[in-house]
Design goal:
Layout lengths: L5 E4 L17 E5 L4 E4 L18 H23 L4 E6 L2 E6 L5 E8 L1 E5 L7 H14 L9 E4 L4
Parallel strand pairs: 6-8
Antiparallel strand pairs: 1-2, 2-3, 4-7, 5-6
Helix pairs in contact: 1-2
């Protein structure tokens, strides 16, 4: 069993009262390898100036995590099949809406991967679709959430 850790760090500034709810939501994510990522609440959730639109927000990170997990499994299955991928670019999107329980949730994530193959003539759209299906089935993050994940392959 694997264990994953991250440190989340936030600090109130002296000029912020906090109890008036007028405080910065900017904070830092620190990963086990030492990488630090500037994070914040989404400006669509907490208005400016209390959010920082330049920072990564949890909703973006959620969509990115699902996209990254899918891509890594896709690359694995392509290589295992003897197919060479030159580029993989995904413009993933997440949609927030009320779920069946009436709570705001990331109800849908659309992956829009565009794959460039080294030898395009060998790879059919059926093969690409099957690799995406295998990747989706294997992605442990996709298997961990209730979010509807849709793959719109552009390859």
């Amino acid at each position: 069993m694997a264990k994953y850790t991250a440190q989340i760090a936030w600090q109130r500034t002296q000029s912020e009262q906090f109890v008036d709810q007028k405080y910065s939501r900017a904070h830092t994510w620190i990963f086990d390898g030492g990488i630090k990522v500037a994070a914040s609440s989404s400006p669509s959730i907490v208005p400016l100036p209390y959010s920082n639109p330049d920072n990564v927000d949890p909703e973006e990170a959620f969509v990115t995590s699902l996209s990254s997990c899918h891509m890594l499994f896709f690359l694995h299955f392509a290589a295992k099949s003897g197919l060479t991928v030159d580029t993989y670019i995904d413009h993933a999107e997440g949609m927030m809406a009320n779920n069946a329980q009436g709570k705001l949730a990331m109800t849908k994530v659309i992956l829009n991967p565009n794959v460039t193959w080294s030898n395009k003539s060998v790879v059919s759209s059926t093969m690409t679709d099957e690799l995406h299906h295998q990747a989706h089935e294997a992605c442990f993050l996709a298997n961990s959430v209730h979010t509807n994940i849709v793959i719109c392959s552009q390859s």
